[in-house]
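Collaborator request, handled under Task 6.
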Amino acid sequence: MKLYSTNDKNNIVDLKEAVLHSLPKDKGLYMPTAIKKLDDEFINNLHKYSFQEIAFKVAENLIGETIPKEDLKNIVEDSINFIAPVVTIEDKTHILELFHGPTLAFKDFGARFMARLMQYFLKDSNEKIKILVATSGDTGGAVAAGFYNIENIEVVILYPKGRVSKLQEKQLTTWGGNIKALEIDGNFDQCQALVKQAFLDPELNEKCNLSSANSINIARLIPQSFYYFEAYKQLTTDLPISFVVPSGNFGNMTAGLLAKKMGLPISKFIAATNKNDVFPKYLASGEYNPIQAYETLSNAMDIGNPSNFYRILDLYGSTWNNIKEEILGYSISDEETVETIVEVHNKLGYVLDPHTAVGYLGSKNYNHENEEKIILSTAHPIKFANEVADSINFSIPHPSSINTILKKEGHKTKLSSDFKALKDFILQ
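Structure tokens returned to the collaborator:
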């Protein structure tokens, strides 16, 4: 597998370089030089394959012979070892539950796959990696769980002070060992900017072998494409199928677009955002204007300058008309989010987390009766129980694993949003 930089298509590297070092020096993002279509026989017979078999086939299609077949199969089977069920909640509306992994969020798929891919690339060398990752909520916990005790890899997680839930904070601060948590006095965009600045700092890169576990790393997007195929498999219908994607940094959306490029017959994508509506405004006007992120109830999507926007541009040759032909965008307020959580529970008996509620309302705005709509549910509602407690009068299903994590003691280092503070911490 070869990849190029979105800023220079002549800057080509192999998968190991792209995974272990995340970003090209020209500040672009890595993209595959070729995205082959899967054969029609496989696409038309998805129901005959298990989730792991589908994941292996899709991974092999992208990665090719870069990793021997048996090794790749082991990576897939060790990382994709939990379910992703599609639940029908009303006519032509379905929820793809992506929260059945160890940290109850969709990012378990990407983090576990990436950890094992990096471990494979490091196994025959003395190279050590220091991963920097910014999180607006779920990424940090998933990365911490996925990389915990992985040899030769240290993880430094940056998260915005006061902008993650209590459970999310516990999930990224209670590991110890090779996992370090930094509470940054700022918002997610500032955390992400610090990580990007670190990758471009000559002294840090000379003294440390830096990598990232955010969706800027192509290793996150590969496994996120798996569950689009798995979801498609689970619906028996002759109608077109569209996917509704609660969107923040647009990694999930980009993974879906990769799935479509590989031949999955997806009708439309609906990007559902909260108040941070940079992308819906782009679809409406053709102008991309990043903003300072607003704080909302769906905090994992509080991103004012989504990194993967540039991958989406690259996939469509920067052609706005083509992008808005296949992707629609809707912005949902906090008030609408809470109303939707209450209404869906009262009418349908299903509990949505705030991000999935944004997706559900996005699906209602896309009012196409002759299509099936699959909404990506990115996190278990228990992760936001405190945030919605004052607005609901019903109990949220409580996985037993939650009690264990909440009792653990967290360990964090508080830092300002000044880059020098982060640099000094890393060098120490």
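The cover message to the collaborator said: "The CA atoms of residues 181 and 412 lie 5 Å apart. The chain has a mean pLDDT of 93. Please let us know whether this matches your experimental observations."
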